[in-house]
Amino acid sequence: MSNFSNPLPSGNYVGEIRSQKLTKSKNDNTLFELTVAVLAFSDASGLTQVPGSVEAIVRMPLTEKAAKWT
Fold this sequence. Notes:
It is elongated and about 40 Å long. The chain has strands spanning 2-4, 12-24, 30-43, 46-61. The protein has a four-stranded antiparallel beta sheet with strand order 1-4-3-2, with no helix packed on it. The protein is mainly beta and 70 residues long.
């Protein structure tokens, strides 16, 4: 699950990890949370800077059921 304040189109991006931590879901399951600064979009023509400051928060559940996706 990704949370963007301003949704970005699907594709490949270059980013920088800003923070990482363990947290809990509403159901009290452990989550790995990663905050990434999105710097550029990457495609066959090269890199295109992403205007402004865009951060993505990715949350991945650390449960038996979700292990193959996380």
